[in-house]
Task: inverse folding
């Protein structure tokens, strides 16, 4: 995986061992997420990863921040699965900063490439407990939307793992071309209507709430098993536009441009 910055430098990603996912962030130079080595022990947990800056000219790396990968469950055979309703770490970068959140708290922090914390966002989000009705919706979605074999596997796993007591706080974060942080509060896959995003400036001040219509949501949004990653979904946000990755009627990937109304 890689991401090229606007200065033409490249961010690289290494995926050692059996780590799940790695976030690529763009700043003054590439940012590399280094995942933990080795397979986690059986049961539920979260692995840590380190975000480091990388100067392509000098080859110097500097640790920027620590993050947490998605909540996982490892079965007795060593296979790793994501936990339904589980939090996942979020990372996004741009305009010389990298923003990091663990997805389980209301806090997102901004770091400079040398690792100094420069700003902090505290989200005003009402967290809701996971109840029996949510679990039943998940079971029904497995049966309705997945193949018979995959649904049977997921239902078996669901009986084996402990689900979170509360929903996560954050699903995705992005940085627009002006350096503002966009935060999508977590939503269940059965959510309907516009998707809510919160916008903050580089100092952490709240600027606006944005509603993204369902017609503009990328195909990876509101899926049963996995949502959008840091490299999919909304690809770029400008002053008055948004670029979204979405397939056409034949499933061919395409990039669609939508206008932002302020």
Result:
């Amino acid at each position: 995986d890689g991401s090229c910055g606007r200065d033409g430098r490249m961010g690289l990603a290494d995926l050692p061992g059996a780590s799940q996912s790695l976030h690529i962030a763009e700043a003054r130079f590439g940012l590399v997420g280094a995942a933990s080595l080795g397979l986690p022990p059986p049961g539920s947990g979260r692995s840590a990863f380190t975000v480091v800056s990388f100067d392509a000219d000098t080859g110097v790396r500097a640790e920027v921040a620590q993050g947490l990968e998605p909540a996982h469950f490892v079965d007795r055979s060593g296979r790793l699965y994501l936990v339904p309703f589980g939090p996942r770490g979020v990372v996004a970068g741009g305009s010389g900063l990298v923003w990091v959140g663990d997805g389980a708290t209301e806090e997102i922090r901004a770091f400079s490439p040398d690792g100094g914390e420069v700003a902090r966002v505290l989200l005003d989000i009402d967290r809701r407990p996971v109840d029996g009705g949510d679990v039943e919706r998940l079971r029904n979605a497995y049966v309705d939307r997945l193949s018979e074999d995959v649904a049977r596997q997921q239902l078996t796993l669901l009986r084996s793992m402990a689900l979170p007591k509360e929903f996560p706080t954050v699903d995705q974060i992005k940085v627009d071309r002006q350096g503002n942080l966009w935060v999508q509060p977590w939503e269940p896959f059965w959510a309907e209507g516009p998707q809510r995003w919160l916008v903050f400036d580089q100092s952490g001040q709240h600027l606006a709430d944005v509603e993204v219509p369902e017609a503009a949501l990328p195909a990876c949004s509101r899926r049963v098993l996995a949502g959008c990653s840091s490299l999919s979904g909304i690809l770029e946000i400008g002053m008055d536009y948004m670029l979204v990755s979405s397939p056409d009627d034949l499933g061919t990937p395409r990039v669609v441009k939508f206008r932002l109304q302020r």
User: Anything to note?
Assistant: The first helix runs from residue 132 to 145. Confidence is low (pLDDT under 50) at residues 1-37. The longest strand covers residues 61-68.
